[in-house]
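Two proteins follow. First one:
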Amino acid sequence: MSKTFDDLLKKLSTCPTKKVSVAAAQDQPILEAVAIAKKQGIADAILVGDEGKIREIASGIDMDLSGYEIINEPDLEQAALKAVSLVHDGKADMYMKGLTDTKTFLKSVLNKEVGLRTGQALSHVCVFELPGIDRLLFLTDVAFIPYPTLEDKVAMINYTVEIAKACGVENPKVAPLAAVEVVNPKMQVTVEAEELTKMNERGEIKGCIVDGPLSLDLAIDPEAAKHKGATGRKIVGDADILVFPDIHAGNLVYKAIVHLATVRNGNILMGTKAPVVLTSRSDSTEIKVNSLALAAVVAEEMSK
């Protein structure tokens, strides 16, 4: 089981090298991440975008472009369509956002002719390596679905379980989170958390253990579970997957972790035919590299 991002890199070292298609690659942080990913054996890249600017930026960071395929397309929208079509046609294994804006990028993902749409909801998954926790922690959804319905939450769980299994977690424990760990009819998220648990027990959500509602402390802190007398729960501070009730809770926790703790993390968009790396321009190069590693591990699992 992969407990760190270094473990993911070791896992990738035994797999065929994946290829990422980058939309509007004329962006220094993206090219830096792509260069590191290639050096570490995570993935090769096809760079789609303004070739002149790509070469200019690469020269400024001493990046050797001789081993890369470059497709010249200065128009941002066309660059995204050409880049996503490479994944659609099987010429690349995963898709990454470069300089283009998120709206244009997602439009290409959902393009009916050359995109990666599956007809299912898209969902964002973040994977954290945190001090004091002896495993990778999977968070969903912190950036994409504002107010997930019960159906959305089922999809979020299924996507995240798929990622967790790709990372070597055989039977991940899933915690649908709420402010409390008991069902309260006046708190709809607790009712839905209970329903997710029952769906898992009925075999409607497979390949994992679901136990909710759970407060955050009971989900990730064994001592808290012990002190609260919750040792009879399926999850007693050892959750692998945290399912947030809405984007506000998820995003606040995500940003609190990123800005207040020393962590490593990567992000991936699921619900598509291939893994999609959708990082923020403010994300560090390390986050972009970790996200590529995560996407490569998922792409390898999808190829099986």
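Second one, unrelated to the first:
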Amino acid sequence: MLVCFGLSWPINAMKAWKSGTAVGTSWMFLALITFGYIAGIAAKFVGGTINWVLAVYFINLLALLVNWAVYARNRARDRRRRAA
């Protein structure tokens, strides 16, 4: 599951970058997934089960942060278009 999600985030970021719009992107979905990754990372530390899966969580979280950056860029572009 983590590997499939991990592969999906860069694809999603590229698709959103090419579209140039935040329309159809849910910030609530991104927030929920971000919270899930942070909770998963915290659980690894609290439970003392630090293994290779923790690295996958961090890689996925990094890819998700790229999605947040693309979302912010596209929202700004959408605002500029509406103002023009």
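SUMMARY FIELD: The mean pLDDT is 95. Residues 52-83 form the longest helix (32 residues).
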